[in-house]
Amino acid sequence: MTNASRLTVFYDGACPLCIREIGLLRRLEKDRRIDYLDVSPPGAAEFCPIPQKELMARFTVKRADGALVSGAQAFTEAWSQIPWLIWLRPIGRFPPTRWVLDLIYSGFLKIRPGLQRWVKRRLKDAE
């Protein structure tokens, strides 16, 4: 399933926005330092470390030490594994900046359902 000594990214594989974000991370992450785990399938709840709904609602990662982090801190952890994005790590770890990033992310989460519907319509229209 996943390697306990690596970072694990939990993502909603039913969300077109999440799929694009994970696709970008995978393309940038050439060294394969991150395990990606889709928590959207019905049977996924049995291997989720916290309730499946929580993992699907907010970007969450499990660090190599087993700690679960979400929001801006989770993005910072993922970025730190990607050479092209590692320069963002200090920015994301600075408490005032992390607070602002979490505020922005919380705002995004409020509009995410509408964006998901819009992207799904656009993809359906493109077929």
Would you kindly provide a written description of the structure presented here, covering whatever features stand out?
With 127 residues, the protein is α+β, with helices and mostly antiparallel strands. The chain has one domain (7-126). The chain is 50% helix and 13% strand. It is built from five helices and four strands; from the N terminus they run E-H-E-H-E-E-H-H-H. It has helices at residues 16-28, 52-57, 72-79, 89-93, 95-126; strands spanning 7-11, 34-38, 60-62, 68-70. Strands 2-1-3-4 form a four-stranded mixed beta sheet, with helices on one face. Strand 3 and strand 4 (68-70) form a beta hairpin. The longest helix is centred in the C-terminal third of the chain and has 32 residues, at 95-126. The model has no long low-confidence stretch (mean pLDDT 89).
